[in-house]
Amino acid sequence: xxxxxxxxxxxxxxxxxxxxxxxxxxxxxxxxxxxxxxxxxxxxxxxxxxxxxxxxxxxxxxxxxxxxxxxxxxxxxxxxxxxxxxxxxxxxxxxxxxxxxxxxxxxxxxxxxxxxxxxxxxxxxxxxxxxxxxxxxxxxxxxxxxxxxxxxxxxxxxxxxxxxxxxxxxxxxxxxxxxxxxxxxxxxxxxxxxxxxxxxxxxxxxxxxxxxxxxxxxxxxxxxxxxxxxxxxxxxxxxxxxxxxxxxxxxxxxxxxxxxxxxxxxxxxxxxxxxxxxxxxxxxxxxxxxxxxxxxxxxxxxxxxxxxxxxxxxxxxxxxxxxxxxxxxxxxxxxxxxxxxxxxxxxxxxxxxxxxxxxxxxxxxxxxxxxxxxxxxxxxxxxxxxxxxxxxxx
Length: 394
Ligand SMILES: Nc1ncnc2c1ncn2[C@@H]1O[C@H](COP(=O)(O)OP(=O)(O)OP(=O)(O)O)[C@@H](O)[C@H]1O
Ligand SMILES: [Mg+2]
Hints:
Elements (H helix, E strand, L loop, with lengths): L11 H23 L11 E2 H8 L3 H10 L7 E3 L2 E4 L1 H14 L17 E5 L8 H14 L4 E5 L5 H5 L13 H5 L7 H4 L1 E2 L5 E4 L7 H8 L10 H7 L7 E5 L6 H9 L2 E6 L3 H23 L8 E6 L7 H14 L12 H8 L14 H25 L4
Helix pairs in contact: 5-15, 10-11
This protein binds adenosine-5'-triphosphate and magnesium ion.
The site of magnesium ion has 5 residues, from helix 5.
């Protein structure tokens, strides 16, 4: 328990500082106990059926390759059941790929001609599920053998903390800001760190990133327009990744716009409520105007896909379903077919800074888990299909 004493300060500035200090101390204690003993996030292991599904093979095939010695047994075998770490699954892809006749069957990463996919999740409506969608897509793709970079463009650092770095406590490493600032930027390769999740790296963010907004407003060197900063930073690490997922802050500032200029595709998450739909209309009006300004400045903006994703979908809620139908009627296939269902399985997982993919099925009500995971898988698969189309794959 935290001893609670009345706040001592009256002056707003001192009071705000005091509140922030108290909150940070509480968060630190809470996190330390949640992430004990080594204060770092780890990933659960995956059962044999889950592993077979991720690899796209049958259980029988797995038993066969183990028996033949093609694939080493996982370290963790309990009561005759095999449990695989994500790293073992990642390694299995490499081994199985060598034996496979179809190239890319187990290692679907991009080839030379297929360009890096830079997906931006954006909407200035707060809480439209940008960060939740970003982390679920990141985990979906990393588990399927893609090399993923999560790029956090939000100074709030939600995606950063979901990736196991707590921007409010121990983290004082380099952030995206250091790679895109105007004075003496560092190499993006120094900013990117691997996460505890095999296949997933993060370009972290913390409050400092908001300096980019201030600096861009006063920056006047035409050789370094603000909208080239993220694109150039990403170009430095391009070869290391297949897919970049950029989470945006809930505002249309320089960070979001510089992201738009770097992106190869846009996804606008949208909760089906009247307020969200009308705010999204305003957002896109503004975004369109800014895109025009960037194009006038000589940059060409081209997106492989630009889609709406319905998030926190409630199939039993009539008004929200009407709004969803309305959006589909207006924009047809601009609205993704799959939706992210509203689910306590998702909100409970995000409370623990986890995605549904990190949760063990038996720890939740199975039907709730299956529904939530099924919906996130469907969203992931649809995005994966669009990416394959961009790559010209069949
Ligand atoms: N599918 C879902 N089911 C239930 N809760 C959800 C779902 N998606 C998101 N949430 C919850 O909604 C809240 C807002 O989600 P999230 O932080 O992803 O939104 P955001 O758009 O990134 O917000 P911000 O604009 O502040 O960055 C979170 O508490 C999250 O747990
Ligand atoms: Mg967010």
